[in-house]
Sequence to fold (338 residues):
Amino acid sequence: MPAHPRSRAVPHLWRWENLLRLAAQAGDIVPVGRGGERRAIALANPALGGRPFATPTLWAAIQYLMPGEDAPEHRHTQHAFRFVVEGSGVWTVVGGTGDTADGDAVPMRRGDFLPQAGWNWHAHHNATAEPMAWIDGLDIPFQYVMESQFFEFGRAEISDAERITPQRSRSERLWGHPGLRPLSVGAVAPGSPLLAYKWENTDAALNDQLLLEKEGYGGTVEPGHAAVRFSNPHDGTDVLPTMRAEFHRVTRGSETAPVRETGSSVYQVFDGSDTVTVGDKSWSVTRGDLFVVPSWEPFSARSEAGDTDSDSGALDLFRFSDAPVFEALQLDRQEITR
Ligand code: 1HN
Fold:
């Protein structure tokens, strides 16, 4: 009975530059197709015995698709999402949980967050002449220990009708209007029915919070720290049953209070070059870098005053965690350590 959680995982940082180089090498030497369904390099926390697990509950990987390539259709009980730190050109084709023949082609661009609830058919295809990389987050380690995993192959090829490249998916047209629920839809399957959360909306929400703060009306979680949670437009809960996703913006000259929580998180730096601290580790991080915050390790981010290489003028961080599991079991605890 430890006095508090002591994670087997350790704080760890993966540099985007290295991940991207390895992924591009994999693009040349590792084929993608039936049976070898995805070209993804998993982040293995060095303290988890060589397993490809970023934390005891979360999987994170960089996926890479070459020009014209298809990643074939399949489905699994593991909940998943994609987040795009750079590039565009891949459409993920989501077929729902029933008949697979009429998938929704969802564009993926820088800053977009795309949840993919378990048991939905999905394939990806690169419709452009450039390779594209993105990150995948899944609850594989959690479902591994729960012994709940099912997997099924879909069709070998998606149809020509699904190989389209719309600017907006059917899901975004139906569910992507703030505060407006379509009356045509009855029961909603677990996980968000909105298949893409576009960068322009996330960016605008964060900017508005910071403007409100400046005008003296609050809006931020603490001074200089704007944050949003990606939520299910049907019922306001987390986007996925087992994973939470958030976006944080820390303005120049601000520092977040060190917080420790039960459960683990993975962060990806979306923009800016600054300092993050996890437990007794501090790193200078830059665009694309990924790091883990194990259970009960304090985390804080600091954005230096002065010039910045960031589009928003701030440190922008994407975060995902296993918080919904902890909250469902009433094991969630949080403490500010300052
Ligand atoms: C998977 O289906 C995807 O669909 C990505 O893009 C990563 C890692 C392990 C198992 C299935 C995807 C995955 C995966």
Notes: The CA atoms of residues 210 and 226 lie 6 Å apart. The longest helix spans residues 199-214. The mean pLDDT is 96. Residues 12-171+194-336 form a domain with the Jelly Rolls fold (CATH 2.60.120.10).
